[in-house]
Write a structure and sequence with these properties.
Blueprint: E1 19-28, H1 35-46, E2 52-59, E3 64-71, H2 74-82, H3 84-97, E4 98-108
Antiparallel strand pairs: 1-3, 1-4, 2-3
C-alpha cells in the first residue's frame, strides 16, 4: 500500500445505504519495484468506474496496510474486479509485492458520520 502523502487526513464521508465496501488488508514484501506507479494507476482507474464512491487508506508502523473502497452497488464492484489492468496488477501483487493479503467484501446497511464543529 502506498503512503498517500497527498491524501486528506479525514475518512471518506458516509453514504446513503445500501452500498458496498471492499476491505483490502496487506503485508508487503521487501521488493516494491514498480509498486508506487502501479498503485497510482489503480487509483486513477478506479475513479473512472461508474459507481465508485471513494477510498480510505491506512498504514500501521508495523507494516499492515488497509485500503477500503466504497462502491454504490455490486455492479460497480464487479466492474472494478473485471478491469484488465486491475487484474494484471493483482497478479503482479501476488508474484512480487504482497507477503499476504485479505479481501473482505460487504454490503453496508447502516452508515453515519461525525465532524466536530469548529469553535
Amino acid at each position: 500500500m502506498s503512503e498517500h502523502p497527498e491524501a486528506p487526513v479525514a475518512p471518506v464521508g458516509a453514504f446513503e445505504p445500501p452500498y458496498y465496501v471492499a476491505v483490502f488488508s496487506t503485508v508487503r514484501t521487501a521488493d516494491q519495484d514498480g509498486y508506487r506507479e502501479t498503485d497510482a494507476r489503480m487509483e486513477e482507474l478506479v475513479k473512472g468506474v461508474p459507481g465508485f464512491l471513494g477510498m480510505d487508506h491506512a498504514q500501521t508502523p508495523g507494516g499492515l496496510g488497509i485500503t477500503v473502497g466504497y462502491f454504490r452497488d455490486a455492479d460497480a464492484l464487479a466492474a472494478w474486479r473485471r478491469d484488465a489492468e486491475h487484474r494484471a496488477a493483482q497478479r503482479r501483487g501476488r508474484e512480487q509485492w504482497y507477503e499476504r493479503y485479505t479481501l473482505h467484501v460487504a454490503k453496508v446497511e447502516r452508515s453515519h458520520a461525525f465532524v466536530r464543529p469548529e469553535g
